[in-house]
């Protein structure tokens, strides 16, 4: 089986390295499975004090539209269950008890952007390409982005990025408060590791408690947002335009949407 994510240790810092770089690290069911397993192991390893997620040249191109088609073809129930499995990745990252930092270079689209935003801190390259791509393919936000983006950037900015499907670079993302730090691409991983090492010496129970308190103070309900997204996205995946977008992606052509 192809390895999609490699876990490395750099002293007290764990590094989740997405390694399917030739395909820009698609967010597939298999990817989610490896992500959940690595996060579980990192959480149980007391020598790991913080974790950095990185995709190298590209963080993640988003949902595996080719791979999802076989499940969508089975109908609404199978589609809903598939979306829930996809959500397991974001759930695991968001609920990870230790500090989690995203190092974002290249593309972070759709579910890939959602995964980046599920971390506590996001460091982006100045020329990174971030996009809530769902509107372009006839879908709605999923993998937690409807909630995560509003928490970071506010409702107005979130609606603008979601409804337009606009691509922004790392500098703009920093200005809009979508990410916390923006540095040249060659410094992204280094900077993320610096932040992780800055956190690592602190008492871990206190850090974990602080993270839990900060999240609780700011939240309405992330899990409710996931359920809302799953229900809406499951309908859209079985409708006209999203399946057409997936088929066009497979056939390397422009989609022919019916509901413009």
Architecture overview:
The chain is α/β, with parallel strands linked by helices and 260 residues long. It has a single domain (5-187), classed as 2-enoyl-CoA Hydratase, Chain A, domain 1, CATH 3.90.226.10. 50% of the residues lie in helices and 17% in strands. The protein has helices spanning 29-44, 65-72, 76-95, 111-117, 145-153, 155-164, 170-175, 188-199, 204-218, 222-237, 241-251; strands spanning 5-10, 13-18, 26-27, 50-54, 62-63, 100-104, 107-109, 121-125, 129-131, 167-169, 181-183. Strands 1-2-4-6-8-11 form a six-stranded mixed sheet, sandwiched between helices. Strands 7-9-10 form a three-stranded mixed sheet. A two-stranded parallel sheet has the order 3-5. One of its GO terms (molecular function) is isomerase activity. Belongs to the enoyl-CoA hydratase/isomerase family. Keywords: Isomerase. It holds the Pfam family ECH_1. InterPro entries: ClpP/crotonase-like_dom_sf, Enoyl-CoA_hydra/iso, Enoyl-CoA_hydra_C.
Distance N to C terminus? 40 Å
User: Radius of gyration over alpha carbons?
Assistant: 18 Å
- What is the strand content? 15-25%
Q: Write down the CATH topology.
A: 2-enoyl-CoA Hydratase, Chain A, domain 1
Count of domains = 1
Largest sheet: 6 strands, mixed
Please write the string of helix (H) and strand (E) elements.
Answer: EEEHEEHHEEHEEHHEHEHHHH
CATH architecture: Alpha-Beta Complex
Mean pLDDT: 92
The CATH homologous superfamily: 2-enoyl-CoA Hydratase, Chain A, domain 1
Strand elements, count: 11
Low-confidence stretches: none
Gross morphology is: globular
């Amino acid at each position: 089986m192809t390895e999609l994510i490699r876990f490395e240790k750099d002293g007290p810092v764990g590094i989740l390295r997405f390694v399917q770089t030739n395909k820009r690290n698609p967010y597939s069911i298999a990817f989610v499975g490896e992500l959940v397993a690595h996060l579980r192991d990192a959480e149980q390893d007391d020598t790991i004090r913080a974790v950095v997620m990185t995709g190298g040249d590209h963080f993640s191109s988003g949902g595996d539209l080719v791979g999802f088609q076989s499940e969508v073809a089975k109908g609404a129930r199978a589609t809903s269950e598939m979306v829930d499995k996809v959500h397991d990745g974001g759930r695991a990252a968001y609920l990870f008890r230790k500090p989690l930092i995203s190092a974002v270079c290249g593309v972070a689209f759709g579910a890939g952007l959602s995964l980046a935003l599920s971390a506590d801190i996001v460091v982006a390259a100045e020329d990174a390409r971030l996009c809530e791509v769902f509107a372009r393919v006839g879908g709605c936000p999923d993998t937690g982005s409807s909630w995560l983006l509003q928490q970071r950037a506010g409702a107005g900015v979130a609606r603008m990025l979601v409804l337009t499907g606009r691509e922004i670079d790392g500098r703009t993302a920093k200005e809009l408060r979508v990410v916390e730090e923006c540095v040249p691409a060659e410094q992204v991983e280094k900077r993320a590791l610096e932040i992780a090492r800055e956190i690592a010496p602190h008492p871990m129970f206190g850090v974990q408690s602080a993270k839990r308190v900060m999240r609780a103070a700011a939240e309405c309900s992330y899990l409710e947002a996931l359920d809302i997204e799953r229900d809406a996205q499951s309908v859209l995946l079985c409708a006209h335009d999203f399946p057409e977008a997936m088929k066009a992606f497979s056939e390397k052509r422009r989609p022919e949407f019916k509901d413009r």
